[in-house]
Each structure stands twice: as structure tokens, then as C-alpha cells.
Amino acid sequence: xxxxxxxxxxxxxxxxxxxxxxxxxxxxxxxxxxxxxxxxxxxxxxxxxxxxxxxxxxxxxxxxxxxxxxxxxxxxxxxxx
Length: 81
Fold this sequence. Notes:
The protein contains two helices and four strands.
């Protein structure tokens, strides 16, 4: 019986970690000079968001429509053993 419990715990941990690796999140918080252009000049905020990109027109001289960047999230909880 004890082996089954350990097996189930290991299986749950493996599945949790694999889902975390696949669910990488993105953020629009990018330093203006690191923005990777995602749209043509004159693109509207709604057109930009429809492309899955970020829009921020508060900084002149940099792309206003730009690609989000991946966020590395450390796992919040680790396996108990």
C-alpha cells in the first residue's frame, strides 16, 4: 500500500511540473528600448491586441505595438518529499 501512495505522489509532482513548463506566461512589461516591433506605423491599439501583441504609446521613438516577452515563473510549491 505504501508503494502506491509514493507512486501517486511522484506522478502528481511530475504532471504538475510538466504543466508548469507548458504554461509559460507572457508580460507586456518590457523596457522601451527592448521592444520587438509587432505592427506597422499607425496600427491601432485594437489591431495590435488582435495580433496578440502589446500596445503602449507613452514613449516616443520606440515601437508602440510590440511582442510580449516570456516570464520565468519559479514553481510556487515543490513536492513534499
